[in-house]
TrEMBL record:
Keywords on record: Coiled coil, Cytoplasm, Kinase, Magnesium, Metal-binding, Phosphotransferase system, Sugar transport, Transferase, Transport
Family, per entry: Belongs to the PEP-utilizing enzyme family.
Residues that, per the record, bind Mg(2+): E433, D457
Organism of derivation: Pseudoxanthomonas helianthi
Domain PEP-utilising enzyme C-terminal: 253-543
Lineage: Bacteria, Pseudomonadati, Pseudomonadota, Gammaproteobacteria, Lysobacterales
Cofactor(s), names only, from the UniProt record: Mg(2+)
GO terms of molecular function: kinase activity; metal ion binding; phosphoenolpyruvate-protein phosphotransferase activity
Catalytic activity: L-histidyl-[protein] + phosphoenolpyruvate = N(pros)-phospho-L-histidyl-[protein] + pyruvate
Pfam families in the record: PEP-utilisers_N, PEP-utilizers, PEP-utilizers_C
Binding residues annotated for phosphoenolpyruvate, in chain numbering: R297, R333, N456, D457, R467
Entries under PROSITE patterns matching the protein: PEP_ENZYMES_2
The protein's enzyme class: transferase
Record PANTHER family: PHOSPHOENOLPYRUVATE-PROTEIN PHOSPHOTRANSFERASE
Name of the protein: Phosphoenolpyruvate-protein phosphotransferase
Amino acid sequence: MRLLLSGHGASRGNALGRARVRQPHALEVVEQRIGANRVEGELAQLHTAIAATRDEMQALRQKLRGALAKEVGEFLDLHALLLDDPELLRGLDDLIRAGRYSADYALRLQRDKLAAVFAEMDDAYLKSRMDDLDHVIGRIHAHLHARAVDLAGVAGDILVSDNVAPSELAQLQAQGVVAIVTAAGSPLSHSAILARSLHLPLVVGAAKALQKINDGDALIVDGGNGRVVVEPGADDLREHRERLRELAREQRELDRLRGKPTRTRDGVDIVLLANAESRDDVANAHALGAAGLGLYRTEFLFLQRNELPDEEEQFHHYRDIVLGMSGRPVTIRTLDLGADKADRTGLALQGEDNPALGVRGVRLSLSHDGVFDTQLRAILRASGYGPVRILVPMVSGREEILAVRQRIRRARARLRKEGHAVAEEIALGAMIEVPAAAIAAHGLVDVVDFFSIGTNDLVQYLLAADRNNEALGELYSPLHPGVLRLLRHVIRIGEESNVPVAVCGEVAGDARFAPLLLALGLTEFSLHPDLLLEVRRAIRNSDRAALQARVDKLLQARDRAGIERWLAAV
Ligand code: PEP
Ligand code: MG
């Protein structure tokens, strides 16, 4: 039956495909009995999943380094013991063989049985071992499900899931998945950013998706408007085809702005830089006439793999980016791992209580000398091939910038001694995304060459609203008087000190907000290349002086509605 679900558009594009539903691992598994002919297959699937879990833990164990290696290692050993527990394994086999339960459900029953034993224990420590059991069962579940997603023939599928990790996206696309719908998630998450880079339509926050969509349903996904039509009718299919034609028309219209200047109606030139995560983005940025790269997110080079990339690999990667922009400046951001960008290499700490407030960005780099120096050396070597700027993520204060400067100085001296070509001048910039750094931006102006405001995180930290938590709804929004005032403050400090200020968070790529950013005095926007022409069009339609004349009114807005009224009136 036809059904319309709505969520948030997180990556544009329209797709028609077949639903492949991936239930979350923690979800209650429904009772499922199997026929005698499926028993052996089900057992084999279960044991493959257990073996994969064992391998995964072993690999994790080998990679542990640093201060917490011992403690974390002990947990993993305990988990490995649970995996080999004859009671657990025999119980599972019996449930499948004699009980004719699906592997999923057998896992659930066995877990509940052991949970009841743990619950009876008086000892709080032993009771807490239940968490370990759940962890192990969860991993086995994950492997059972991963295989379901990996099944051959996913080309043309639309993945429906509770959430999707950045590290999964490229693989899913390579398998032929044409769109993704998630029940949770936010358009500002890193998965959403990466999906946009991959041109993979994504709707997030479609809360009912897992209940209402069945495996095999036909779906139309509109990643721009956040709409999902389940089992579309003839009218929907016609509309879908019309929408595809409309998108192509709109694109042709925007294409006319290629090569045109980004100049306001009153003649002010605005710098449009591109955000990039991949070589495709770089090619796109170049083709669309970006003035340079304002943000190259290096962590994506680290995310899709189990081993850290070495200096040579990073150097070749960064050099390709620099060469790809043929002489236009390339801003390479040092590693911003941690929080929702957890890697598989074991570098970012797992299991922090508050990962967004934890060891991420420059904090992680400064606590891993070898990893940071390798990255800096690779970036500095790439600077021999074209203009490079270095951008530091998650800066809280000047000490961090000074420490990075010193590391760069040392790495440069060593590279020169080794005979490498390194640029004389490499501008060093700070991401302004920690509120305290924004408020105290005056304390950074003499140690940085430029600022880049990361509104995605700045909004999250300023409003105490997780950028990935769909339940917070509109609470996470740049349209808050506090956010606008802080942006104005940083832009002012930059103007007064001759430190260029760009905004590289997602607001810069939203054409609706261009007048607002122009009114606040912004002259540099860094955005995903796909959005460049739209934002150029919005800027070309704006009169900067007229907008700036109304900035006081904007700053007096007391709430989101007031800001929206201001925007509606421009
Ligand atoms: C930001 O926080 O606005 C930003 C650009 O960085 P990221 O989205 O990679 O955290
Ligand atoms: Mg950020």
